[in-house]
Amino acid sequence: MQHHHLRASPETCHWGFFDASLKPAMVVASGDEVTIDSISGGPDVLPREAQFYIPPELKEVHARCERMVPGHILTGPVAVEGAEPGDVLEIEILDIRLRQNWGYNMIRPLAGTLPDDFHEVRLLNIPLDKERMVGKLPWGLDLPLAPFFGVMGTAPPPAWGRITSIVPRAMGGNLDNKELTPGAKLFLPVFVPGALFSCGDGHAAQGDGEVCITAIETALRGKFILRLRKDLRFTYPRAETATHYMTMAMDPDLDQCVVKALRDMIVLLGEKRNLSREDAYTLCSLAADLRVTQTVNGSKGIHCMIAKSIVHAGM
Fold first, then answer.
1. Bond preceding residue 158 cis, omega within 30 of 0
2. Is the separation of the CB atoms in 178 and 208 below 8 Å?
3. pTM of the prediction?
4. Which of 14, 45, 50, 110 is the most buried (most CB within 10 A)?
């Protein structure tokens, strides 16, 4: 295993989009450890207070990078040697740390889960205490932090062209899944040689739903192991934590998200425990949890979770 560090810069960031034609910012071998730095937000969200640290590369990206508006600043892509369309990229999340002592949250009219209820822009710059791992909200609440990357994705199929980073799709992207913290593994389909993994949209804290359209958005440093899995054949993202298996689905219709995530969980239970479709459906009704991932990204999200201890009980 080798260790690599991909820092954020105008040369290593793409702003607002995924594109199969992007040249790799780094090439690694399967099983290598990769540290990736992210930055977040446009010029309009920067705090003016001197006590807040702004990563210098953020302003460099603002000045020099092409921007697809709106969208996220993503670091990458990282190519994995030997990855080919049809493979699966396993992203093991080893560590996630804050890179700055503030984050922002914004309400925008005509956006979010209640687009017609709020008519003025509101921006909060939220102090982050990296020692106590809390965010200090303006009404006096110290909110516990649990950092994760809102966006983790491989490159889309070449025929899709350049696509926005906002809408999550089969290659992952803007999943906004708060379960993807250190110890979790994310499995993404590969659509292009090298897989071309990028990440960004750092979140210090987020509730399921991300209802006002932003979490506590911030800069993060993530440490990952990228593994090529030629033994797996997924057409849609899956994940697992230390304790749970997880299927995911995205669609403009939340009901369709439920259907897709549940169908894939039935398939997963057949793979992991050799259950019939009927037995798997029953077990989902008795022990699986359907959770809303987010409701604000154009395509909404559902993730279905089931405890590994239940799946493997009695084996």
1. no
2. yes
3. 0.97
4. 14
